[in-house]
C-alpha cells in the first residue's frame, strides 16, 4: 500500500464516527494497476504487438492526475514468447496465468480497502486477472464492452500449427470455455456465469466469420447488446438495460471490461482490430458513467490501445479524457 493510500484509509478509520454523521463521499478512491502485457496477441510480421506500452503512454498523458488516483501499482512486464509453451495450445498460456494471478492480488487488495481498482492493459487477457481479483474479493458479474464478442474457442485454433490468442477468446475463457489453465482459478473455478455476463458493442454480427469464431455465444445465456442496437436506442437506454440485467441477477459488485476497439475506427484506429460502426468518445464515456454511478461496478480494466499504431501518441490525451469522464463519475454504494 502506498503512503497516500495508507493516509487516506487510516484517516477514514480514525474519523469513522465523525464521518458517519457527515455527508458521504460520493466517490470511491481510484487505485491504478498498470499491467503492461501483450501476451494475448499474435505477433505481426515477426514483431511483438505494442500494447504493453499503453500503461506508460497513458500515464505520461496524465491519466493518474485525471483520475486523481491515490496510487499506481506497476506490475513487471511479462516475457512474450512467440513459440508454443509446453502443455498448452494458447499462446503464452502459462505466462498469462502467472500474470493474471499478479493482477488479481492487486485488485483484491484494493477492493479489500474499499478502493476502486482501474487496471490499465495491455491486451484483453488482463481481464482474467481483473475478474479473478473481483471474485476473490466477493464480487461477481461482468459487463464486457468490446467491439468483438471475443468468444473464439479451441475448435478454431487447436491444430499442431496454430496457437490460440487469448485476446480473442477472453469472454469464452472467463465463462469457462477452454483449457483449464485459463478457466479454472483458485478459490472460484470459473470466473463468470453466462447469466451474470453482459456483452456490449459487438459490431460484426452480420459479417463473414462471426458464426465461425464467435457464433457459439448466440446459444448461451449471455446478454448481448450489439453496437447497432446501442446506437438505435441511445447510450442512456443501453446503460439502463445493462443495469436492469444486473439488478435482475442480484449483482451489486460487477467488473467492467473495456476493449478500446469498441470505439469507431474513425476516432480510434490505434488498436489491434479497428472497425466500424463503434462508439465515439462521448458515447463511451456516457455509457461508463451511467454504469459506475449505478453503484453496481466495483472496478474496471481498459485494454488494446497500441501506442506503436499511434505516431506521436496523439490519441492518448483523448483516451485519458474518455476514461476520466467515465470512471470519474464513480459512486460510493452501500452495496460495497
Task: Provide an overview of this structure.
With 336 residues, the chain is α/β, with parallel strands linked by helices. It has one domain (29-327): Ureohydrolase domain (Arginase, Chain A, 3-Layer(aba) Sandwich). Helix content is 35%, strand content 12%. It has helices at residues 3-14, 16-21, 54-60, 63-67, 93-112, 126-136, 170-174, 210-213, 227-233, 235-248, 281-293, 316-327; strands spanning 30-35, 71-74, 116-121, 142-145, 197-200, 223-225, 254-259, 297-303. An 8-stranded parallel sheet has the order 2-1-3-8-7-4-5-6, sandwiched between helices. α11 links the parallel β7 (254-259) and β8. The radius of gyration is 19 Å and the shape is globular. The model is unreliable at 6-26 and 331-336 (pLDDT under 50).
In short:
The chain is of the alpha/beta class and 336 residues long. It contains twelve helices and eight strands.
Which helices and strands appear, and what pairs or packs with what?
Layout: H1 3-14, H2 16-21, E1 30-35, H3 54-60, H4 63-67, E2 71-74, H5 93-112, E3 116-121, H6 126-136, E4 142-145, H7 170-174, E5 197-200, H8 210-213, E6 223-225, H9 227-233, H10 235-248, E7 254-259, H11 281-293, E8 297-303, H12 316-327
What is the succession of H and E elements?
A: HHEHHEHEHEHEHEHHEHEH
Q: What is the overall shape?
A: globular
Q: What is the fold named in CATH at topology level?
A: Arginase, Chain A
From the alpha-carbon coordinates, what is the Rg to the nearest angstrom? 19 Å
CATH homologous superfamily annotation? Ureohydrolase domain
Strand content: 5-15%
CATH architecture term:
3-Layer(aba) Sandwich
Q: How many domain units? A: 1
Helix share, percent = 25-40%
Main pleated sheet = 8 strands, parallel
**Physical arrangement of strands within the biggest beta sheet:** 2-1-3-8-7-4-5-6
Mean pLDDT: 90
What is the CATH C level class, in words?
Alpha Beta
